Amino acid sequence: MPGRTYEYHQWGKYPTVNPPEGAHGVPAYAGTLKNGGILRGGASAAPQARCQTRPAKRILVVEDDPLNLQFNVAALSRFGYQTKTAEDGAAAWKALQANGYDLLITDNNMPRVSGIELVKKVRSAHMTLPVIMASAGVPTRELDRNPWLQPVAALAKPYTGDELLRTVKKVLHEADSARKQIEPLPILSQRKLGNGGPVVSNHGCP
């Protein structure tokens, strides 16, 4: 495909047969992919500015449909997120055990291990990373009956690149805020001014 392309990593292999309609494979995107992954009718062209001292957030994207996966990775990569991918819940579980992530984005209707089954594995292992269930069939009733599976945000297909990015930003912000409430204050350092007065700095981003 001509034009700009995006490199992303994948755990396992894609299925070679398209799933039956209604089971899974519902398009994630309300816009289209153009020029090798450029979003139309979705995300803004200008990447969001990030503090240079902060590492990019690591996101695991779990999706069994190749086009949906490409759409998600293209949108996230353009805004500076580091993405890894898995084609179903079983491959995602291996990836989560091998590496740490800041966010999990998963479809629900997938072969072998579904999205809700993956979330149960994650919470049973006491992993606290936030989850976005991006699916045409979000199991809201089961999530409501099992509050121990939270936090799980729902994003119904089809969605635009802007909707995906807004949800990701909101969920990551809430996770960071919750983490700051339980983490100890940063170690502060003092340096002297010419007049002997101290200046307190945490050497971080404003």
What does this structure look like?
By secondary structure, the chain is of the alpha/beta class. It has one domain: Response regulator (Rossmann fold), CATH 3.40.50. It has helices at 66-78, 89-98, 115-124, 140-145, 161-182, and strands at residues 9-11, 32-34, 38-40, 58-62, 82-86, 103-106, 131-135, 152-156, 189-192, 198-201. It has a six-stranded parallel beta sheet with strand order 1-5-4-6-7-8, with helices on both faces. The chain has a two-stranded antiparallel ribbon with strand order 2-3. A two-stranded antiparallel ribbon has the order 9-10. The radius of gyration is 19 Å and the shape is globular. Residues 1-25, 32-53 and 199-206 have low confidence and may be disordered.
